[in-house]
Amino acid sequence: MSQIELRDVAIEYRKPKSDESFVAIRGINLSIDKGSFVTIVGSSGCGKSTLLLAIAGLIPRARGSIRVDGRDVAGPGRDRAMVFQEASLLPWRSVHGNVRFGLELQRWSRDNVDQRVAHFIGMVGLGQFADYHPHQLSGGMRQRVNIARALAVDPDVLLLDEPFAALDAQTREVMGNELLHIWEHDKKTALFVTHAIDEAIFLGDKVVVMGKDPGRIKDVVEIDLPRPRTTAMLDSAAFVAYRRTLRDYIAADMQSLQMIEDAA
Amino acid sequence: MAVAIEIERRRALSLARIVDRYYGPAVSTLAVLAFLLLWQFAATRGWVNVRYTSAPSQVFSAAVDVFRHDHFLHHAWVSFSEFSVGFGVALGIGLPLGLLLGSSQRLRLFVEPPLMALYTAPRLTLLPILIVWLGIGMASKVAVVFLGVVFPIIVNTIAGVREADPRLLQAARAFGANAPDIFIKVLVPGALPAILLGIRLGIGRGVLSIVVGEMFVSEAGIGHQIMTYGEAMQVNRLLVYALSITLFGYALTLAVRLLENRVRSWRPQP
Ligand SMILES: Nc1ncnc2c1ncn2[C@@H]1O[C@H](COP(=O)(O)OP(=O)(O)O)[C@@H](O)[C@H]1O
Ligand SMILES: [Mg+2]
Questions:
Q1: What is the pLDDT, as a whole number, of residue B54?
Q2: Cβ-proximal residues to B84 (8 Å cutoff; 6+ apart), any chain
Q3: Nearest CA to ligand 1 atom 4
Q4: A110 and A222: one domain?
Q5: Residue with CA closest to ligand 1 atom 24
Q6: Do B175 and A101 touch (CB under 8 A)?
């Protein structure tokens, strides 16, 4: 059963200092199965964030329809939660306070909120750090808080916009593994944006490849690797083949960018 | 052996920490003491004319005298109540107005130009008008304190709200925040350091306003006494009052600064 359905979606932004609009993405058709892990790759500026924000209900669409569990998306909702990049934590709140933030906004009953918060802080391995403030944490720890904040509101769909982009390669790998671990536990539908090809393959059941000018979906690649995924798979023949396919797609995009720059 | 070295090292470390911690205050205290000593010395040696410069010992005995026989508490109370009322009203109006203006660009377009003009205008020049309007009693002084305090609070609150990180606003909205949520949970806490800065600047301006206002025209108050003793060439007593009001402003500023440090503790210390 597909849980998220996008039909012919287009998003436009107003160009700065003019009345013209700029088509960020268009002609987006996508079905995402309940409980699946879908990754979105594409070069920078192809509209990955735009697509995710539209599903989150944070930006209006110019045309098309977005449905989650059959309901039209008209704004943010309890059924979806978003994991942003690290700078989206409230710097004046502790880890506990930040994870509590989403629950407060969604008016969860106060009775066992703090217990719930503690549970999710423990789940991402930050039990010792509940009273720390974001500036006292490493980038990886901040992203654990971000993930805990999203999980705590018990969404059906998890939307992650390059959550590990600011992390070093090692931390990134560890975080990817842990995210999968958590996901395998309750199989929430996950939509994960990245520009790292390996990460997209390693995490995803499907990789959505996006291209630019205008932002669009070029292809959706099914990743037929067994779960649980292990780091050893990174060197398997199948993985290498996926990597090559995706790299060619994105390289094509880079070439067209090069042509534009040359022409200019 | 290694243990002994370790203990030795720790002792040295903790000593270094103590020196580090008290170095600033110690130097400041020494500087004040040195100044007082030099002042006293210059006066007793006759390097300066004590009639104009006074001396710490004389100021001290004048202080004893003032506190006993000069209705000091009455004058302090007059100034303090004028200051408090003016300050309270300025806070009660400036803070909500600043929050409102900070979150509405349209309102800002209307109000900002006259606001900035008033902020930069030398407001003490309005004093004669205020006295014509409000008389020489408490009201005119309250008004001049109000004018001194309200603008730094408004302007800094606006700045604090406008600097709100759009990524935080977006995160809040993603979790379903409505406008009051965003206001209370994101904008106000984010603007708090700036608001406190506005309050601290306001204190300085408010204290100055009260003294000048009372010096200009009044029946009682610290400024009134400073003027009186100035005209009578009683430098000792004048200094007692001037020092008292300085200490008041300093203590209040210090208190707000401590609060600021607490509020800023979530930021990496520079
Ligand atoms: N708020 C905005 N206003 C105008 N243009 C925007 C805005 N956000 C993104 N864009 C433009 O839309 C395109 C897609 O952006 P984005 O979705 O952020 O890409 P990605 O996340 O893939 O890097 C880019 O060309 C970007 O400049
Ligand atoms: Mg992006």
A1: 84
A2: none
A3: A13
A4: no
A5: A45
A6: yes
Question: What is the number of CB-based contacts under 8 A between chain A and chain B?
Answer: 58
Nearest CB among B175, B190, B267 relative to A102 is that of B175
What is the DSSP code (8-state) at residue B47?
S
Query: Nearest Cα to B87, choosing from B209, B240, B262, B193?
Result: B209
The C-alpha angle with vertex A162 and arms to A159 and A163, in degrees rounded to 5, equals 80
Cα angle A157, A163, A168; round to 5: 150
- How far is it, in rounded angstroms, from Cα A101 to Cα A157? 18
What is the CATH number for A10? 3.40.50.300
- pLDDT 10s digits, A123-155: 999 999 999 999 999 999 999 999 999 999 999
Name the band, by pLDDT with cuts 50, 70 and 90, for residue B13. Answer: low
| Confidence tier at A264 by pLDDT (50, 70, 90) | low
For residue A136, give its domain range.
88-154
Q: How many CB atoms lie within 10 A of CB B38?
A: 12
Alpha-carbon gap, residue A101 to A121, rounded angstroms = 13
Q: Give the residue among A111, A110, A178, A187 at the shortest CA–CA distance from A146.
A: A178
Residue where the block lists tokens 């995490």: A203
- Domains: count for chain A: 2
In this prediction, residue B135 carries a pLDDT of: 85
Which uninterrupted H or E stretch holds A5? Answer: strand A2-14
Residues A241, A182 share a domain: yes
Mutation target vs A (from B185, B263, B265, B266; most A CBs, 10 A cutoff): B266
| B167 touching chain A per CB within 8 A | yes
Query: How far is the C-alpha of A171 from the C-alpha of A144, rounded, in Å?
Result: 11
Mean model confidence pLDDT for chain B? 88
Same domain, A244 and A222: yes
Report pLDDT for B270. 45
- Cβ atoms < 10 Å from Cβ of A236: 12
Q: What is the pTM of this model?
A: 0.82
Here the ipTM equals 0.90
